[in-house]
Amino acid sequence: MPKIECISAGSITPLLMRKGSEPNITYSAIGKRPVSSLSNRVSVCVTRLGIEGDQQADLSVHGGAEKAIYAYPCEHYPFWNDLIEDATGEQNNFEFGQIGENLSTLGFDERTVWVGDIWRIGEVALQVVKHREPCFKFNLHMRYRGAAKAMIQSAKCGWYLRVLSEGSMHAGQDIDVAPGPRTTTIYDLNLKQLNKNQAELF
Fold first, then answer.
1. How far is CA 73 from CA 4, 76, 95, 176, in A?
2. Angle CA 47–97–146, to nearest 5
3. 0.85 exceeded by the pTM?
4. Under 8 Å CB-to-CB from 133, ≥6 apart: which residues?
5. Quick check: 31 and 10 in contact, CB under 8 A?
6. What domains, with CATH codes, occur in the chain?
7. CA-CA distance, 13 to 198, in Å (whole number)?
8. I want to staple 178 with a disulfide (CB 3.0 to 4.6 A). Which of 39, 62, 114, 118 is the partner?
């Protein structure tokens, strides 16, 4: 059965970017840190707006009721370790939360997660909403200007969930899935985004 490997949260911090020759600062809470792990199974409070203590810098693109929690498969981490090392020459061993996710999951991928499915994790109920559309801040955070493009092209995008029932949960808990309409997967949504992006180039 799929389960939660780690729960992470983050605070708004500055990200350095450059506009021409001048340094510029933007803000993001993409840098998440574990608050509940398999080695420290602390119960975490989940509200309608997500993990207690988690912040978002721009609520127009992240957070809010419809994007309260971001889930990402931990099975994708080797892809990012290899990609960043090949692109930058830097050896990485990314930890949970590095992609900006709140829930690091085991047993899911974008082809098997359906929009509208309901996840029950202990007393918490979550519903799958949509895929992630990465922005320039992901490139800054990963220190690789091709990271956002790679996420879309690889379909390793993860997905957002809304909170249907508040409560507490912790790392290591199983995820019981109640099927929704099962008409669209997260992979399908990402593919539409990819096709749209390619069409805009012509």
1. 9, 6, 12, 16
2. 125
3. yes
4. 61, 152, 157, 193
5. yes
6. 3-199 (2.40.33.20)
7. 32
8. 118
